[in-house]
Amino acid sequence: MLRFDGVHKSLGGDEIIRGVDLAIEAGRTTVLIGPSGCGKSTLLRMLLRLLTPDAGRVLFDGEPITERTMRAVRLRTGYVIQDGGLFPHLTARANAALMARHLGWDRDRIAARLDELLSLTAFPRDGLDRYPVQLSGGQRQRVALMRALMLDPDVLLLDEPLAALDPMIRFDLQRDLRAIFRELGKTTVLVTHDLGEAAWFGDRIVLLRDGRIVQSGSIRDLTEQPAEPFVRRFVTAQRSHAVDAATGSEE
Amino acid sequence: MSLASLAICAALAAGPAAGDGPPIVVGSKAFTESVILGEIVTQLAASRGAEAHHRREIGGTRILFSALELGEIDVYPEYTGTIAREILSGENLTSNDEIRAALARRGIMMTAPLGFNNTYVIGVRPGTADELGLVAISDLRGHPELRFGFTNEFMNRGDGWPSLRRRYGLPQTDVGGLDHDLALRALANGSIDATDLYSTDADIAHYGFRLLTDDLEHFRRYDAVLLYRQELLRRAPEVVEALADLGGTIDGPRMIELNRRVKIEQQTEAAVAAAFLGVRAPAQETFVQRQTRLLGEHLYLVVVSLVLAIAVAVPLGIVAARRPRAGQVILAVVGIIFTIPALALLVLLMPVPWPREPGRPDILGIGRETAIAALFLYSLLPIVRNTHAGLKSIDLATRESAAALGLSAWSTLIRIEMPLAARTILAGIKTAAVINVGFATLAAFIRAGGYGQPILTGLRLNRLDLILEGAVPAAILAVLTQVLFELAERAVVPRGLRLQLPG
Fold first, then answer.
1. Which of A115-119, A182-186, B312-316, B441-445 has the lowest mean pLDDT?
2. What domains are there in chain A, each with its CATH number?
């Protein structure tokens, strides 16, 4: 569905991505993980052509993402960032429905879609007319998810969507999100630095370091067959979270 | 916005005045005597059936004479000494006939002298004159103990104290420079014994000073005359005839009396001119009518210039935010414009080409359009800068979120960026509006009307009440502008942003 072919990218003189080849399977959740500065967010932004590769290609559905195909790709992709990226001057409803309105959907169709998304994301209906500043962090992320899913995209990209939330809210949202991903069965790419979260969401985990892929596989692969010492160190540092998930003692 | 469109509609509807041929435009300089003479000429022309306007207190000699040459005014009062020494100083003219011939080569006609000579005179107290038997300046030679206080300008002029002393061989040593008004009071209370005066100064009669005859003819003649455009002979021969009839009708004491009525008795120039001509004075505006007119003129200047500035500066600010290289140039240029002093900017704008109705030169010249152009230029900086800053302050995450949704650059600008920058842009517009309310008072220097006009007249006549009549409403208007924009903020700034703390 999504593919990186020999991608390199430098930002401000530093080479952030140093040759990445990665195929992301359709209908599953892929987690990009690694320490700060490893290039995981940069890869995600290249999938939307918010950044363009210096070398190599980024493909969407087999086609390179170009200036010409960029808009079509963006309309088929939902994007959620750390603190939601909601537009502060618009209500929750206007944020979620922005693109649908822009594309000329009629009122009934928008209302029907919002109804579906409200129940999917468990967002309270009376919150729709609130502005982002009037919502809690968790509620904002639910609105951001509604906005990302409004056009029923094929791909969902999430960049540290839960990193700014406090642990209780985070726990609820992790549970809800995984249920949503499984229910929708979309091609999902999630960026995190938390191995527990990666294990929780990821059908496949891609560990990055210094702009390269270190290891790619299930959480079991990473814990039991580390490809190099760095993987062991990374896993050990986050073991307390990772072990529970890996041994299946969830919830 | 509705106020602005109203103002524009009114301007379009006004158009050129109806009638056969353009009206006769009379100009006058920014001092009382010139305004009275201008008023006399205007009412005289009107009494001969011509449509005449008086553009009062336009400025100094240079501005008046170029306005006459360019055809922006048709006639104005001038002094022969000023023509010979200032306007045509390179031609070394001495007699009135030479001056008349030199002007004719420029298409300008000069009437016969009106009858008074407004030159420098030396004034003393009547007591001193009687006691010492002073009649002429040469009588001062025998009294070296007399104390002289001259205006600072007179101390330095080519025909001032140094040359006067040489010419008459005056022995006085206690001589100093001081301000004109202080010199008048110093002479009246005996601190000095002689000072320089203008011969038609109303203060001479007011204080009862005695004038000494210039028996060696040291001072040049400054005979009052009227200058008019040659084409007036063809356009309005009856008016030219009336101007010629004015020759020799105003002698020195008569002019002093006319000046006295305005400066000391505080009658209007129009009333004094009407009494002189023996015609009925034109109807006077009431206080309310005048305030309403001034408010209208002032708002017109501010609103039209601001609307134009918003239309130009906001797009410029957007370009500046999008293209950093062009942005630096744009911000630098509007910044430089802002530093040009107001009066210099007005003078720079006067020769700018501008389409006019037939019979007027196609330049901005003096008047409303020039003032609007200047206010427009001053408004650019705050609006461009705030538009630029407002757009630049939007964080990357917000802009990327908009792009990631698939919004085009244009839609992102209209739906996301402009609403987010609205508060900052509005603050820039508010700054421009408040600055404009203040700067618009300077428009009176070029006859563009507004609250600056009573301020200028008040300064000339030294009347605090007139100054306040312009300054107080202008200050109130500035405050109201602030309030208006605070209300506008509720309408323009999205509710989601107002819920946050500002900043």
1. B441-445
2. 2-246 (3.40.50.300)
pLDDT over 90 at A209, yes or no: yes
Among B232, B257, B277, where does a domain finish?
A: B277
Residue B85 DSSP class = I
Per DSSP, B21 falls in state: S
The complex's ipTM works out to 0.88
Asked whether the beta carbons of B213 and B137 are under 8 A apart, the reply is yes
Task: Report chain A residues touching chain B, CB-CB < 8 A.
Answer: 45, 48, 50, 71, 74-75, 77, 79, 81-83, 85-91, 98-99, 102, 131-134, 147
**Residue range(s) defining the domain that contains residue B412:** 287-498
Which chain B residues have any C-beta within 8 angstroms of a chain A C-beta? 397-398, 400-408, 411, 415-416, 419-420, 494-497, 499-500
pLDDT tens, residue by residue, A143-167: 999 999 999 999 999 999 998 888 8
pLDDT band for position B15 (cuts 50, 70, 90): very low
Which domain CATH number covers B97? 3.40.190.10
> Cβ–Cβ of A89/B408 closer than 8 Å?
no
Answer yes or no: do B244 and B206 share one domain. Answer: no
Give the pairing of strands B75-79 and B210-212.
unpaired
Contact B426, A118 (CB under 8 A): no
Q: Partners of A204 in the beta sheet?
A: A30
Rounded Cα distance between B380 and B383, Å, is 5
Nearest to A89 among B403, B411, B494 (CB): B494
Of the candidate ranges A26-30, B98-102, B264-268, the one whose mean pLDDT is the lowest: B264-268
